[in-house]
């Protein structure tokens, strides 16, 4: 192997599941100290290719070489032993284990035949500190926010001393500050000769971090750019295979009628304090802030999922402060949560069942529910909301974008007055993202009050009439659309 040789080479990699061809002869080289962005819509084959490299999936044909020799890992452990690590988009932490135990699960440091907890916690603390996460490594993972869990997954990868890291949507749950910390670690790893495969739907960050871009579509490699500094429109058109005229639809003008009002709301855990705002009929109201600002806790409280210590929620001027999710749902307030896989859908149940669970009152007769009525109701929702799937298909078999559409479909079928969307496009490709934005705007046009929480600043700016900015649990300010931009939002978010 020469100094300029690739550390990993893939040649003619194919993968089929029965008659379904997922990958069509992929060739790819990864060199030491470079970041290769692997891009494509959901279903393009990025995850399958990554899983083949990391030993989770076996290819149907083709060959790989690693460090100049044949490479065919039987499982993820074999890949890790070779120096290849992967951070999956779906969090794989064990909630009842500590942070340190999760970081080193399956490879605990040993001393005199026992787990060396001091070494394990010291090394875990070091990895967390490098990512700016000030949290005790002996704390249980259970109860941590999605963003903090994502940082723990990244810290886990940093302790592998890997020669190649595959990062699948590593910033999907992170805010701007945490993302910059991660980018600094990536630059450090590059300087040490580590190769990185970087998968993300946040195209602006690709331009900042990638040395090379590989675009996949329908299981094939369709284009390769020898630089990360490529216009976003060019990247998107390569991904979707068509010209993309616009991303964000035109916002409708909201009415003057206030649908939802939040007055002096505080949480018992102090996650947010003294928050007040209103959302008008037909308005898309954005909530922005850095990770840990209290955004998710606030909307969960409004939706009855988290407790409220003081303050009140009003609907059309009537107090409806929810004490449980069912309280909120009965009053026409629904929440599409940030983690659709854990909180939004039942992955091993069918699309029809998932939609039916939220609409039993609509489809039952005298307390009885027939499978025929569930199927008919679900098929109408699938058609209305553009879900690419069949009613009998398990939700876990769908792409991220279509899973999100199932979550939206089951709640929107109830004709709610207030729809709260927490990270509505996290981990969703640009094509599906555009259709989610269209759904949001359609809701506003129908007179629904919509609240959108997003870590993606471009997104919250693009879909919102007004934006509430939170900082450290406090209300930093509310910006009108004409006053809101990257600078004005971040100035408030960092006070």
Automatic annotation (TrEMBL):
ABC transporter domain sequence ranges: 8-243, 253-495
Any one annotated GO CC term: plasma membrane
GO terms assigned for molecular function: ATP binding; ATP hydrolysis activity
Predominant subcellular localization, coarse grouping: membrane
Alphabetic keyword roster: ATP-binding, Cell membrane, Membrane, Nucleotide-binding, Repeat, Sugar transport, Translocase, Transport
Pfam families: ABC_tran
Subcellular location: Cell membrane
Bilayer topology annotation: Peripheral membrane protein
InterPro entries per the UniProt record, alphabetical: AAA+_ATPase, ABC_carbohydrate_import_ATPase, ABC_transporter-like_ATP-bd, ABC_transporter-like_CS, P-loop_NTPase
Family the UniProt entry places it in: Belongs to the ABC transporter superfamily.
Protein name: Fused D-ribose transporter subunits of ABC superfamily: ATP-binding components
Organism: Sinorhizobium medicae
Gene that this sequence comes from: rbsA
């Amino acid at each position: 192997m020469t100094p300029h040789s690739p550390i990993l080479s893939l040649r003619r990699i194919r993968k089929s599941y029965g008659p379904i061809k997922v990958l069509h002869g992929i060739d790819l080289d990864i060199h030491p100290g470079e970041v290769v962005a692997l891009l494509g819509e959901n279903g393009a084959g990025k995850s399958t290719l990554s899983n083949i490299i990391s030993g989770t999936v076996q290819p149907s044909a083709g060959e790989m070489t690693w460090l100049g020799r044949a490479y065919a890992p039987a499982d993820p452990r074999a890949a890790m032993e070779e120096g290849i690590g992967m951070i999956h988009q779906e969090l794989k932490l064990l909630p009842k284990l500590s942070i340190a135990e999760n970081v080193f699960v399956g490879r605990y440091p040993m001393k005199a035949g026992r787990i060396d907890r001091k070494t394990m916690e010291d090394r875990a603390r070091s990895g967390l500190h490098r990512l700016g996460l000030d949290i005790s490594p002996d704390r249980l993972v259970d109860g941590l926010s999605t963003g903090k869990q994502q940082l723990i997954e990244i810290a886990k990868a940093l302790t592998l001393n890997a020669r190649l890291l595959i990062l699948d949507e590593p910033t999907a749950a992170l805010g701007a500050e945490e993302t910059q910390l991660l980018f600094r670690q990536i630059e450090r790893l590059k300087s040490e000769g580590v190769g990185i495969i970087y998968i993300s739907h946040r195209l602006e960050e690709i331009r900042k971090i990638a040395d090379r871009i590989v675009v996949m579509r329908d299981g094939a490699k369709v284009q390769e750019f020898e630089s990360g500094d490529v216009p976003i429109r060019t990247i998107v058109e390569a991904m979707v295979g068509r010209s993309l005229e616009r991303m964000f639809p035109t916002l409708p003008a909201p009415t003057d009628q206030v649908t939802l009002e939040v007055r002096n709301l505080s949480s018992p855990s102090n996650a947010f304090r003294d928050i007040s705002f209103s959302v008008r009929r037909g308005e898309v109201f954005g909530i922005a802030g850095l990770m840990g600002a209290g955004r998710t806790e606030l909307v969960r409280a409004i939706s009855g999922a988290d407790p409220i210590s003081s303050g009140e929620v009003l609907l059309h001027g009537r107090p409806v402060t929810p004490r449980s999710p069912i309280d909120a749902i009965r009053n026409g307030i629904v929440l599409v949560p940030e983690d659709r896989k854990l909180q939004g859908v039942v992955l091993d149940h069918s699309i029809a069942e998932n939609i039916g669970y939220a609409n039993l009152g609509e489809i039952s007769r005298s307390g009885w529910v027939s499978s025929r009525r569930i199927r008919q109701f679900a098929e109408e929702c699938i058609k209305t909301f553009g879900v690419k799937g069949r009613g009998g298909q398990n939700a876990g078999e769908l792409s991220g974008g279509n899973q999100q559409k199932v979550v939206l479909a089951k709640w929107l079928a109830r004709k709610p007055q207030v729809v709260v969307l927490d990270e509505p496009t996290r981990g969703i490709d640009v094509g599906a993202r555009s259709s989610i934005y269209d759904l949001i705007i359609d809701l506003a046009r129908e007179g629904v009050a919509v609240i959108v929480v997003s870590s993606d600043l471009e997104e919250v700016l693009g879909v919102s009439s007004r934006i509430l900015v939170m900082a450290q649990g406090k209300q930093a300010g509310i910006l009108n659309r004409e006053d809101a931009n990257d600078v004005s939002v971040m100035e408030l978010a960092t006070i």
